[in-house]
Amino acid sequence: MIKKLLTVSITLALATSTGFVYAQAKAGVGKEKAASCAGCHGEDGNSAMPGFPKLAGQHQGYLIKQLKAFKSGERNAPMMAPLAMGLDDKSMEEIAAYYASQKISVNPAPTLPADDEDDDDKPAKTDDEKKAELAALIEQGSDLYRNGNIGREVSACVACHGPYAEGNKPAAYPALHSQHADYLIKTLSDFKTGARSNNPENMMHMIAKKMTDEDIKAVSYYISTMK
User: Fold this and answer.
1) Which has more pLDDT, 201 or 76?
2) Hey, what long-range contacts does 39-44 have (CB within 8 A, 24 or more apart)?
3) pLDDT at 114
4) Average pLDDT over residues 182-210
5) Binding site membership: which residues?
6) Which superfamily is assigned to 2-100 in CATH?
7) Residue ranges at the known binding site for heme c
8) Which CATH number fits domain 114-225: 1.25.40.10, 1.10.357.10, 3.60.40.10, 1.10.760.10?
9) d(Cα 173, Cα 157) in Å, to the nearest integer?
10) What are the boundaries of each domain within the chain?
């Protein structure tokens, strides 16, 4: 009996080790193929520009799905379409494996959105007022993320994206934590207007269209602070 258990344990260990080595090899090849992506998304998938999404730590299945959508035209993106057109399924898997293996960077402490600071019709805000307003904005975003808004039938983000915005790997719902607030605002705005619709049953459009611009800003800023 002991001999049989040892044999099973060794077999499982070898299988796990082989799978890990294979995954690492795929990610290594993906790094080379992702070289042309570094200009916008960063060498390790951590974009330094807030308008471009961080890809580090994102679920492989979700990244593959998006690349295929760019390639087919299901997701309209003039910058991404030409790049995706040159990728076969294997290359997409390898690039996605590389980014999925990276660790997403933590964002610096957020500051008040620029459009809230620049208002010539009002006296300049003090630092304490800005801090209080930012704290209120993030608190509003936290409440919306976790509880939604029953009155306007806005679903809680936590239902699909998890308590720590880690996403749902089997369902291919993306991880959101530590993503750039600017990118999240644009994404939710695109879902709201229908400019982006490549999600199951257009679910994100149905949610985002019920969100106010302030809702979108608040939840985006909150998510950007999650680690």
Assistant:
1) 76
2) 40/79, 41/99, 44/102
3) 67
4) 94
5) 37, 40-41, 80, 157, 160-161, 204
6) Cytochrome c-like domain (1.10.760.10)
7) 37, 40-41, 80, 157, 160-161, 204
8) 1.10.760.10
9) 11
10) 2-100, 114-225
Burial 191-225 (b: 16+ CB within 10 A, else e): bbeeebebbeeeebbebbebbeeebbbbbbbbbbb
Does residue 14 have a pLDDT over 80? Answer: no
The reply to whether domains 2-100 and 114-225 share a CATH topology is yes
What value does the mean pLDDT take over residues 148-152? 95
Q: What is the pLDDT of residue 15?
A: 46
Among 11-25, 36-50, 118-132, the range scoring the smallest mean pLDDT is: 11-25
What's the whole-model pTM score? 0.85
Record the tokens describing residue 58, joined without a space. 């994102």
151-to-155, 202, 203, 206, 207 alpha-carbon distances in Å: 10, 21, 18, 15, 13
